[in-house]
Amino acid sequence: MKRILVKxxxxxxxxALGFSSCVDETERADTPxxxxxxxxxxxxxxxxxxxxxxxxYGLDWQEVYNKYxxxxxxxxxxxxxxxxxxxxxxxxxxxxxxxxSSYDYGRYWTxxxxxxxxxxxxxxxxxxxxxxxxxxxxxxxxxxxxxxxLRYESFQSPVGDGNLDDILSYLILCRGLIIDIRNNGGGxxxxxxxxxxxxxxxxxxxxxxxxxxxxxxxxxSDMEPQYLEPSSNLRWHKPVCVxxxxxxxxxxxxxASMMHALPQVKLVGDKTGGGSGMPMxxxxxxxxxxRFSACPMYDKDKQHTEFGIAPDYPVELTDEDTKxxxxxxxxxxxxxxxx
Length: 339
Fold this sequence. Notes:
Shape: elongated
Radius of gyration: 22 Å
Number of strands: 15
Distance between the termini: 66 Å
């Protein structure tokens, strides 16, 4: 038998939450039944969205246990067990829930795969041209109507204060700024916060956070306010449009939430993909790793953003515009900023 350990994911912001680094769990046998019981129990005691998803679509974790328990027996093959466990986790409808083995990666990606992309690589190349600037993980340029365009494809790519000073200095004479985070699947929340801090002029409430305090589904701390402190470096004071689509997830979803709290910022495009639960990870007796949402985050109005953030201006790429080489979402943002 192997003891199951649950540990926090390595996100910078988790350091301040007061969690222990691991939690001892009941020992389970390294059998299909033992691994099934271990996984169900880990999620039961540590997952953070049971009540919310019960309300949204009727999730009942005990019913999920009954549904999948009958599919497990100790004579089944390892690949069969992996399939059953992935199917069970998919009931959570959570892009932060993954099961990893040496040969496969179980995931729930319906949050983006079931929706239009609302992004085109060929259109992006057309708008950027060949003379765009590159600074760390950000590409940027001035469009021909004196609107600044900044694209941050992944918050996995680090960006420093020196990078942001140079970028904003270059764009400083623009009358407005487009920040394109479409297809940004997240990464390091510190990078998202560092960029967002360039758009606040005073300490600003941008959301709330809770963390688990026990094994019960409703064992949470009180809501803890999350503030965005203004950068001590160069800051942007003019209007901003943030472009979003369904592939905006996790730390990028949080960036959209933070920016949405600011009066001079408008979200343009499609609803984001969500992913507002900070992840934890654990291992099963057979060595498979499971990741899951453990700390719920909320917007400034104390509303869940797990299933995404609606834009202020819903816009989709149209086939007609795409054939003409026009990005409908970018053009909508340009018109808003020109006004």
